[in-house]
Amino acid sequence: MIQIDRSNTATVGLELFPVAERHQDALIESIIQEQIPSWTANPYFQSASVHRSLDGLRVFTYSQWKPKFDPRSLTRPAIFSEFYPPDSLLLEVVASRPLSSEVEIVTGDRMTHLAEFRMIPSNQPEMVKRTSAELDRAMSSPGLISATFHRSLDGTRMFNYGQWESKEAFENILKQAGFNPDKPYWDGLARNEFHLYNVVHTQTTA
Q1: What span, in angstroms and rounded, lies between the C-alpha atoms of 145 and 50?
Q2: Contact 14, 148 (CB under 8 A)
Q3: Per residue in 117-135, pLDDT tens?
Q4: In sequence order, which residues have a C-beta less than 8 Å from that of residue 41 and are 6 or more positions away?
Q5: Cis peptide before 121 (omega within 30 of 0)
Q6: Taking Cα atoms as reference points, which of 145, 128, 152, 131 lies closest to residue 199?
Q7: What are the pLDDT digits (tens) for 50-109?
Q8: Could you read off the pLDDT of 13-42 as tens digits, one per residue?
Q9: Beta-bridge mates of residue 131
Q10: Structural domains for the chain
Q11: Which end of the chain has fewer beta carbons closer than 10 Å to its terminal beta carbon, N or C?
Q12: Helix and strand tally (H, E) in the chain?
């Protein structure tokens, strides 16, 4: 079990891998067997989790490093030359609401919703304000366990790492005003894309 550091004493590394459906399992195995062991050897490493998309076309890793560290500076194992290169970003938490006291990343049946918002850097401060303002209303949705918004340090993106009890619970929020893709709260500020995942592996320093 991993706790997301919502105080930003750690750096968040996000790696988004596109993958052919037939290669998703092999990519996940390479991350678990090759990438994460190389990370754990680094003194700045705190935790990592691996996420498998339900559509079979994506994998992402969410890692935390403390004190501040850029994991993109590390050498990637040679086996990753067999896969599409990931989109690698550094993030920090800007707003977070859990039902309990902490945001926990655990393997199991819960759904992880990763929403990506792309924008010009001048729009990111307003996106931070809007997402923070919408959090309390979002948390009233049945089945939402936590929502944690991150901004990319380059100013071009924001991500919502949301956790849900089920796929059906997530789909219900899309019917609500402001969260409906036809007229969303981010209209005019960002382009949004989202996908659903399961957590398939977690690793900590312990």
Answers
A1: 19
A2: no
A3: 999 999 999 999 999 888 9
A4: none
A5: no
A6: 145
A7: 999 999 999 999 999 999 899 999 999 999 999 999 999 999 999 999 988 899 999 988
A8: 999 999 999 999 999 999 999 999 999 999
A9: none
A10: 2-204 (3.30.70.100)
A11: C
A12: 4, 10
Class of residue 139 by CB neighbours under 10 A (exposed 0-12, middle 13-18, buried 19+): middle
Site of tokens 């403390």: 66
Q: Where does 91-143 have alpha helices with state H?
A: 124-139
- Show Cβ contacts of residue 85 under 8 Å, excluding neighbours closer than 6 positions: none
Provide the pLDDT for residue 180.
Answer: 83
The answer to whether the beta carbons of residues 162 and 109 sit under 8 Å apart is: no
Q: Which amino acid appears at position 154 of this protein?
A: D
Tokens of 49: 């989790």
Give the position of tokens 């750096």. Answer: 11
